[in-house]
Amino acid sequence: AGMAGAFLMEIRRGTQSALLVLRYAAAELPSAPVEVSVCADSLEVRSGGSCDAAALPAGVRLAPSSCRGLRRLRGDGLHLRVRLHCPPPAADVVFTLRESLKPKKNYIFYCQSCGDIIVKDRKFLRVLPLPSENWSNLVEEWCCHPDPFARSTLHPQHDDCFLGDTFFLLNSGNESQVSESPRSKENTRVTCKRCKTMLGERVSSDTIKYYVTEVIIQPAEGSFSPIPRSQFVQSMVAQCLLELSSAKSTFRFTIKGDNGKTYILIWLLNSDTLLVESLGSSFSHSDFTLFGDILTPSSGPVGTWNAVKILYQPCIQCRNKELADAWENDMGVHALKFPSETCLELLLILGLSTTSLPPSLRRMNSFQVRNRFS
């Protein structure tokens, strides 16, 4: 049976511990005494002669004797911490763009928003990672002579695909499936002919930069499989964060638009979180009306999500300007660039996720918390 008091359990695989939050309608406990039973594989709540129980997902087993810190927080409900009998299975390894694109295979590029074909059947002989965005600045530090690459540009040939942190570069050739609108002397916005969504920028006469949040790449022999927009944006941004934090040991990021403005500051906390939540409850899902596609776990009264936990600060309308300026000048902060419209979408997704959390879990050291970022 579904539980009258909805619950949220945040599990950390690394520490084999969990925080359990049991909430009730209007954030008020029933008038009758409440008895909460924590079993190895289930939760049970008794109140006023009624009994509600929920089985935990397979692989999640608690150590009931380790329960501690039971307390009631107004507006939240009951909080308690518990150890795990054994950690749940590890999350699937993030499937990155670098792994999905292979040389000598045919691919079709689709507009993520509408499914229109952007690049028809294309086979790459080389799929190569680009150096960091500021690589030319570092060359000046390495070389005692004038920069030997000063007049060189890293532009792909027709059979090349170059991968950056948040984009990939393709030789445009005779592609005509996109529209272009002049924006400045240097760059031209590239948009989808059908839905007019910005896909990237033309960086030279024969090179187009496509952002990973705007294009779906699939093998030519397959068929187009649409992915809900908010789910896709979350997935691609999470991939970028995890890949860069692993490769460069950096955990702070600025999300910038193609207009050069900073929209969000992100601090990556961990990627080993598993969320377990009772479904059909009103305390969380009502906040996701616009983005219901995010919350589609396995069927049943209890859902599970692998999550990347972050702290974030919005920077629109001059908010947090001093902090943003400090991060801008910090070598330990990595900038990620996306279309400005996508930055605003991401900020809305983050805000909706934050409001779904119990009030006491929404902020940490003045930053807002985002749990379901995967």
From TrEMBL:
Its EC number is 2.3.2.26. One of its GO terms (cellular component) is cytosol. GO terms for molecular function: cyclin binding; ligase activity; ubiquitin conjugating enzyme binding; ubiquitin protein ligase activity. Keywords: Ligase. The keyword rRNA processing does not apply. It catalyses: S-ubiquitinyl-[E2 ubiquitin-conjugating enzyme]-L-cysteine + [acceptor protein]-L-lysine = [E2 ubiquitin-conjugating enzyme]-L-cysteine + N(6)-ubiquitinyl-[acceptor protein]-L-lysine. It is an enzyme of class 2 (transferase). It comes from the Eukaryota. One of its GO terms (biological process) is proteasome-mediated ubiquitin-dependent protein catabolic process. PANTHER family: E3 UBIQUITIN-PROTEIN LIGASE E3D, E3 UBIQUITIN-PROTEIN LIGASE E3D FAMILY MEMBER. Interacts with UBE2C/UbcH10 (E2 ubiquitin-conjugating enzyme). In vitro, interacts with cyclin-B. E3 ubiquitin-protein ligase which accepts ubiquitin from specific E2 ubiquitin-conjugating enzymes, and transfers it to substrates, generally promoting their degradation by the proteasome. Independently of its E3 ubiquitin-protein ligase activity, acts as an inhibitor of CPSF3 endonuclease activity by blocking CPSF3 active site. This is E3 ubiquitin-protein ligase E3D. The lineage of its organism: Eukaryota, Metazoa, Chordata, Craniata, Vertebrata.
